[in-house]
Design brief:
It is a single chain. With 572 residues, this protein is an alpha/beta fold. The protein is 47% helix and 12% strand. A 7-stranded mixed sheet has the order 4-5-6-7-8-10-9.
Length: 572
């Protein structure tokens, strides 16, 4: 009997040991939070604004919640401190908004981070962004490193004397390479150089020699996070980014944390050898969607999820800044993220409205093409301001040009445009070619092109005739001829189809993220999964993706150009 009990107890201990061992293997090697572009502002004493909106009249062209920024950051740090799974906090640049000119913002931010470390005993690692420091400014690189000495530099294995770069160990298996990607003096563009790339290479080799996996953090993006980013938004991505990504991937870097673009987007690049590197661009913490990322790493998996700030201490906010109404506070308390989205949309509208003026575009009144451009810009702004539906709406106007605008719940083109931009910031864009949003977007573009071309015809070919006819109360002859042409022949002109062939893939890509990598929540292969078979699989996936993109783009272009050729032949 005793022998049987002993055997039974031994078996129980063995089973328990196996279970404990299994659970131990599931424990992450590393878990941490990543935030970017905190853009801390010293709050104003009194709220001011100039936008004609009943709620968001104090929104700004940056769409950032500047007066609330410090309180959003406080809540973020509190969440990180109270989450037992978070071991470290990584901040990938633009810690403050006016750091180059106002060092006090840095001292305020450093005080917040010091209080966090003292309260929760968790280490913060920072790197500079373009808003933080520059040589010849009030905050130099040396001053930045001094102010933030306790937040990464005190843990550093190596500190680059020429900029703000450094390395530090994270846990037992990983090494952080915090790379200063900023130009010494330029306001937004990257400062990536061959020397910096070589410095990264040396740090990767040092990490490898110590048996550690390299993780890179920098402010500028490594991979494209929006259609043709390197063309339309080139100051937000490093120069020669594909070549750089190729090198970094083959050196063994799998993870990059960046910011700057203010979008929540994940893009994976595969080198010719099949090595993958994933760039996590994290949106601005103090703009909608007020988000940061949480990571857990094991040898096999890299898990990530997006977390948002849903509330702040509004009592402290109103004690600091006067001018917030009770309606402001009630809306914030009922859902800060929804409030931030409204603030963002109004800010985007404000910013674009400012840009759509002859003065902002730098076109003088005496320029020979002033009237031409003014006509086009006015036509664009008129359509943006029109209601989408009902009498005098875009849908009604479009019918005159044989363009069908689908029904939706959007009030006007501004509402749709700002919603799509908000989705880009939020990540996980899901408006595919079949969606109502993309259909409205592309057809409104077609309408703008159609009406703009009518206006251009006014200026170039029929100006005198139109002036004469308008004296008798007759509408623009070019406009009437355009309507007549579409009524008789249908479709668009060759020029419009050509423009749509170029614009459609870009607009579609902006509204629909089809790279099969979730922007906010997902799982990637860990650092320990690299093998010959996995690399071959990566190469195969990359080839299939390239082929798919080529087919998709050619389909758009050929569809439109085929129609354009038919119209050209018919007119000829």
């Amino acid at each position: 009997m005793k022998k049987a009990v002993c055997i039974l107890l031994s078996l129980c201990l063995l089973v328990c040991s196996c279970v404990i061992g299994a659970f131990a293997n599931e424990e992450p090697d590393l878990s941490f939070a990543v935030a970017s572009d905190l853009h801390y502002n010293i709050p104003r004493e009194v709220l001011e604004g100039e936008i004609d909106d009943p709620i968001y009249w104090y929104a700004n062209r940056r769409c950032a919640m500047e007066d609330e920024s410090g309180f959003i950051i406080d809540e973020f740090l509190k969440q990180c401190g109270e989450n037992d799974e978070i071991e470290f906090v990584l901040l990938s640049g633009d810690l403050v908004d006016n750091g180059r000119a106002i060092p006090q913002e840095h001292y305020d931010m450093a005080a917040k981070l010091a209080a966090f470390e003292a309260t929760y005993g968790k280490q913060v690692y920072v790197i500079n962004g373009n808003h933080d420091a520059a040589e010849g400014s009030e905050t130099t690189f040396a001053q930045f490193k001094s102010i933030y000495h306790d937040f990464g530099y005190d843990q550093a294995l190596v500190i680059n004397e020429n900029d703000c770069s450094y390395t530090a160990n994270l846990g037992e298996k990983y090494r952080l390479i915090a790379l200063d990607s900023c130009d010494e003096t330029a306001s937004t563009e990257d400062g990536m150089t061959a020397e910096k790339i070589d410095w990264v290479h040396q740090q990767v080799k040092a990490a490898d020699a110590d048996g550690r996996y390299p993780i890179l953090m920098m402010h500028h993006n490594l991979n494209n996070h929006m259609p043709l980013q390197s063309i339309f938004s080139k100051n937000f991505i490093v120069k020669f980014h594909n070549t750089t990504a190729e090198l970094f991937a083959d050196w063994g870097i799998k993870l990059v944390f960046s910011g700057h673009e203010h979008c929540s987007d994940v893009t994976t690049f595969t080198s010719l050898l099949g090595n993958t590197i994933t760039d996590f661009a994290t949106t601005s913490l103090t703009m909608y969607p007020l988000a940061y990322r949480f990571f857990t790493l094991t040898e096999d998996e890299i898990k990530y999820e997006s977390k948002t700030i849903e509330s702040i201490d509004t009592d402290a906010l109103t004690q600091t800044v006067s001018g917030f109404t009770q309606e402001h506070i009630d809306l914030m308390n009922s859902g800060l993220n929804a409030y931030a989205k409204g603030f963002l949309k109004e800010g985007i509208k404000y910013r674009l409205s400012l840009s759509l003026s002859m003065e902002k575009m730098g076109i003088a009144e005496d320029a020979f093409y002033y009237d031409l451009v003014y006509t086009a810009v006015t036509g664009l702004t008129d359509i943006l301001e029109m209601p989408l539906y009902g009498e005098g709406g875009v849908q009604e106007l479009a019918k005159a040009y044989n363009i069908d605008i689908p029904d939706s719940n959007y009030e006007d083109p501004w509402d749709l445009a700002t919603e799509l931009v908000a989705a880009h910031y939020e990540g996980g864009e899901n408006k595919d070619l079949e969606s109502t949003e993309v259909a409205i977007l592309l057809r409104t573009v077609a309408l703008i092109l159609r009406t703009d071309l009518a206006g251009i015809s006014d200026e170039l070919f029929l100006k005198a005739a139109n002036a004469f006819l308008e004296d008798y109360g007759i509408e623009s002859i070019s406009d009437e001829l355009t309507k007549l042409g579409t009524k008789v022949f249908g479709g668009a002109t060759s020029a419009e189809y050509f423009l749509l062939a170029i614009a459609s893939p870009i607009l579609y890509e902006f509204a629909f993220d089809n790279d099969n990598v979730d922007d906010n929540n997902g799982t990637l292969d860990g650092y320990g999964t690299v093998s010959v078979s996995s690399n071959i699989s990566n190469i195969s996936d990359k080839t299939a993706k390239i082929f798919s993109d080529i087919v998709k783009y050619m389909k758009y272009i050929l569809t439109y150009l085929f129609k354009a050729i038919i119209i050209f032949d018919f007119n000829f």
